[in-house]
Amino acid sequence: MRTERANESGQTERRDPKVVVGAAIIADGRVLACARSAPPEVAGMWEFPGGKVEPGESETAALVRECAEELAVRVEVGDRVGRNVRMAHGRSVLKVYAARLLHGDRPKALEHSALRWLSAAELDTVTWLPADAPIVAALRPLLAAD
User: Please, which domain of life does this record's source organism belong to (predicted)?
Assistant: First the structure.
């Protein structure tokens, strides 16, 4: 998936979308959901932790870094969950990976207003960000199997 735009000379440029990664951290049949604290238009909505992949960084390395920065945890990244989700009018794409906590780490809400561990039956009890919502259905079988 590429986006196109006209440059200053009117020629069309093709750009790959920015990749945003998310972690579906699963433990004891539950997944970690994080409530956004900002910006105001999405504050209180729920997401999977993660962030932008930096230039030269792999998707899994970005996810490990983001989990450390946002939650003060170390994770092992597993398989992809769900499909790519287009964001920001096609300028970004969200890719979510299953992950598990390492070394008994416990997440801390360093950048979020709240954290919740949700079972498959509880996934619909929070309001997910539009980009994260399509991943929820793909998560149900993983939570049942854990």
Answer: Bacteria
Query: What would the pLDDT profile of 11-54 be if each residue is shown by its tens digit?
Result: 555 578 899 999 999 999 999 999 999 999 999 999 999 999 99
Measure the CA–CA gap between 7 and 109, rounded to whole angstroms: 41
Task: Compute CA distances 129 → 109, 112, 132, 136, 145, whole Å.
Answer: 17, 14, 5, 11, 25
Measured at the CA of 56, the angle between CA 107 and CA 108, to 5 degrees, comes to: 10
Element of type H or E holding 13: strand 12-15
- The continuous run of DSSP H or E covering 66 comes out as helix 59-71
pLDDT > 70: percent of the chain: 88
Tell me how far apart the alpha carbons of residues 39 and 16 are, in angstroms, rounded to a whole number.
25
What's the whole-model pTM score?
A: 0.87
* Residue entry with tokens 């919740």: 116
Which letter does DSSP use for residue 128 in this model? B
Interatomic CA distance for residues 46 and 76, integer angstroms? 22
